[in-house]
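Sequence in, structure out.
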Amino acid sequence: MTILGVFFTFHMIGLVLWLGAAVLLPLAILPAAKSLEPASRTQFMGVFTKRFLPWFIAGGIAVGITGWIQTVQMLDDLNTPVMIAKHAAILPLIAVSGYIWFYLARKLSKPATASEGIWTQMAVCSWIQLALSLVVLFLTGWLTGS
């Protein structure tokens, strides 16, 4: 296995942590939390965010570092329309993901700020995160297969 293969492996592990949450959040986690009483829902989000946030950060760092290394290794592919589109989708994905995990999830874990409006905002943002994640994965598959 080459060093690039090692970086690719860590890139995939980071993606599982980061984008796996993007898929599970709107499909399973939020609907399950919504079925709880408000006090239990707030407690759940507090525990979940506290336990998951370090993994989310580690996955994001792994994706960023290994993705940059892989991109530098394939400099001739940097200016293709697909690579440009992938990076154009990654930037809003990073922004939405950060907003979800560093702002909304923290608000939902505190009883004083866990309003229905914040829950609705979390649901909408999590679906946007999922859509952007799928776009990035699709474009990554396109780049990998070509």
